[in-house]
Design brief:
7% helix, 32 strands, 2 domains, elongated, Pectate Lyase C-like, 14-stranded parallel beta barrel
C-alpha cells in the first residue's frame, strides 16, 4: 500500500471520528469538521454546490478554523472563496468540477489590479478562478479527491467574468496543497503569487496549459508531483510585476517530481499518448522582473517534453541555482536553455538583469532534438555556469551547412528554445558568457551530424575537462570566436590547450 493510500485512509478515518464527535455543523455551532452536505451541497453533478461550499467555509472561519469536508460525490461549482485557518478536504471519490458558465453559474469577476502593464491578463487577476484567496494564512487544499476544470477557459481571453484558473492565491502565508489531482486546469492549474511558506506535495496535474506557476514566492517546497502539460509549462517559477513591485522568487526546492507533455488526459488514464510537439518542462520565466534566488532542483524526471529553461529578460537577477540528479527522455528541444535578454517588460529605467552561479550535475539525457544554449547579449554576459557529469544522447542528423549559421541576437524577443534560429553546434552553443565549465561530459549522436560539438562566441573563461563528444572526422572539437582564457584538458583525444586569446579559430 502506498504512502498516499495510507494517508487517505487515515485522513478519512479521522474525518469520520471528528464528524461523529462534533456538534451539529448545520446549525453553525463550533466544530472541527464542516461537512458541505450539511449546508445543502448535493454532490450529484447537477446542482450548483458552490453556495453550500462557501457557506461551510464561512462557518469554519467564524468558528476560528476547521476542515471543510467534501465526501464522495461530484460537486458542480463556480468560485469558492478560501479563508484563513481552513482546510478543504476532498475525500476519496470526491470530484470538484468547474461548472460551465451559464445563467445560474457565474464566476467572480476579475478584480481591479494595481499593475496590468507588465504581465498577461491571467497573471494580473485572481478572483476569476475556481478556488481563490488573498491575504490569507494557514490554508490547505487536500486530497485524495479530484478537481476538474471543465468550465474553465484556457486561452488568452480577457473576459472579466470567465473562470480561467483552478487555484489562485495572492499574498498568502503558510499554504499547503497536497495529494489532489487536477485535470484540465484552465489557464493555470495553480497560480501562487506572493505566497510565502508554500508546500505543494503529491499532486497529479494533467492539463493543457501551465501546471503550476510559482510567482514571487518565498520558502517553497514542491515534491512528489507529476505534471503533464502538453500545451505549456509544467512547473514554472516566475517573478512578475503583478504585486506592483519587483519581488523575487526565492528559497525554492523542487524534488522527486515528473514533468511530461503527453496528450492531455493520458498521463491520468495511463495511456501516455504522444502527439505534436509538446512543451511540459521546468522553467524560470518568462515573467522575470523580481528575480530568482537560491533554487535547488533534484531527483526529477522529464519525458516527451521540453528541457530546462532558465530565463531573465525583464531585469531579474537569476542566481544561485543548483540542478542535480535528473533524467530526461525524448526532449523535443534543448536539454538546457539559459537566456539573458533585454525584453524589459517592466518599469522604465530598469537595467538589464544578470544570470549567474548556476550548477548543473549528474544529468542523463536521451533523445534530445536540439543543442543546448547559453546565450547572453552584447555587454551582458551569463556568468559562472558549470556542467558536470552529464550524458547526452542526441538525435543529430544536421547537415554541414548548418555549422556555418550565426544565430540571431534577438535581444528583445520572447525567450524560447529555437527563437535564435538553428544552432551551429551539435552539443552546446555558448555566446556572451564568462566562466563556463564543462567537466566529465559525454555527447553521442543517433545520426552523424555535420556540426562541431561546441561553438563559442564572445566567451571569457571556458574550461573543458574530460569531455568526449561524437563528431565526424575532420570536424573540430570547438569552434571559437572572440575567446579569452580557453582551457581544454583530458578531452576527446585532443591535445591539451591553454589559450589566452582566440579571435577566430577552431581546435583541433
Amino acid at each position: 500500500m502506498t504512502g498516499q493510500q495510507l494517508r487517505s485512509i487515515a485522513g478519512t478515518a479521522i474525518v469520520a471520528i471528528l464528524v461523529a464527535s462534533s456538534a451539529s455543523a448545520q446549525n453553525g455551532t463550533s466544530s472541527v469538521v464542516f461537512d458541505v452536505r450539511a449546508y445543502g451541497a448535493k454532490g450529484d453533478g447537477v446542482a450548483l454546490d458552490s453556495p453550500a461550499i462557501n457557506e461551510a467555509i464561512d462557518k469554519a472561519s467564524a468558528a476560528g478554523g476547521g476542515t471543510v469536508w467534501l465526501p464522495a460525490g461530484t460537486y458542480r461549482s463556480v468560485s469558492i472563496h478560501l479563508k484563513s485557518n481552513t482546510a478543504i478536504h476532498l475525500d476519496a471519490g470526491a470530484v470538484l468540477v468547474a461548472a460551465d458558465r451559464s445563467a445560474d453559474a457565474k464566476y467572480d469577476v476579475a478584480e481591479p489590479s494595481p499593475s496590468t502593464r507588465f504581465q498577461d491578463f491571467g497573471h494580473s487577476h485572481f478572483h476569476n478562478s475556481l478556488l481563490w484567496g488573498e491575504h490569507l494564512e494557514n490554508v490547505s487544499i487536500e486530497g485524495p479527491g479530484q478537481i476538474v476544470g471543465k468550465g474553465l477557459v484556457n486561452d488568452f481571453t480577457k473576459q472579466m467574468d470567465d473562470g480561467n484558473k483552478t487555484i489562485a492565491l495572492r499574498d498568502c502565508r503558510h499554504v499547503t496543497i497536497e495529494d489532489v489531482t487536477i485535470r484540465h486546469g484552465g489557464w493555470f492549474g495553480i497560480l501562487a503569487t506572493g505566497v510565502d511558506h508554500l508546500k505543494i506535495r503529491g499532486l497529479l496535474i494533467d492539463t493543457n496549459r501551465d501546471g503550476m506557476d510559482i510567482d514571487c514566492c518565498r520558502d517553497v517546497h514542491v515534491s512528489e508531483c507529476s505534471v503533464n502539460s502538453p500545451g505549456d509549462d509544467g512547473i514554472c517559477l516566475k517573478s512578475s510585476y503583478a504585486l506592483n513591485e519587483a519581488r523575487a522568487c526565492e528559497n525554492v526546492t523542487i524534488t522527486n517530481c515528473h514533468v511530461s507533455g503527453f496528450k492531455e488526459g493520458t498521463l491520468w488514464d495511463g495511456t501516455m499518448l504522444r502527439e505534436g510537439r509538446p512543451t511540459g518542462r521546468i522553467k524560470f520565466g518568462t515573467e522575470s522582473n523580481g528575480g530568482f534566488r537560491n533554487i535547488a532542483i533534484s531527483n526529477c524526471t522529464f519525458d516527451y517534453c521540453g528541457g530546462f529553461a532558465l530565463e531573465s529578460v525583464d531585469g531579474a537577477l537569476l542566481e544561485d541555482v543548483t540542478i542535480s540528479n535528473i533524467t530526461m527522455r525524448d526532449i523535443v528541444n534543448s536539454p538546457f536553455f539559459l537566456r539573458l535578454g533585454r525584453r524589459m517588460r517592466g518599469p522604465a529605467g530598469t537595467p538589464v538583469g544578470k544570470l549567474r552561479r548556476v550548477s548543473i550535475s549528474n544529468v542523463r539525457v536521451v533523445g534530445a532534438r536540439e543543442a543546448s544554449t547559453i546565450a547572453g547579449i552584447p555587454g551582458h554576459s551569463i556568468e559562472d555556469v558549470s556542467f558536470s557529469h552529464i550524458r547526452i544522447q542526441s538525435k543529430g542528423g544536421a547537415k554541414a551547412e548548418q555549422a556555418l549559421l550565426v544565430p540571431k541576437e534577438d535581444e528583445r524577443g520572447y525567450p524560447e528554445p529555437g527563437a535564435l534560429g538553428p544552432m551551429p553546434a551539435s552539443c552546446f552553443f555558448v555566446r556572451h558568457a564568462k566562466n563556463v565549465e564543462f567537466d566529465d561530459i559525454r555527447s553521442d549522436m543517433d545520426k552523424t551530424d555535420g556540426r562541431p560539438p561546441f561553438v563559442l562566441d564572445d566567451v571569457t573563461g571556458a574550461d573543458f575537462f574530460k569531455v568526449k563528444a561524437a563528431r565526424l572526422d575532420g570536424l573540430p572539437f570547438v569552434r571559437a570566436t572572440n575567446i579569452r582564457d580557453l582551457i581544454i584538458r583530458a578531452s576527446d583525444g585532443v591535445r591539451d590547450l591553454e589559450a589566452k586569446s582566440l579571435d577566430k579559430g577552431q581546435y583541433p
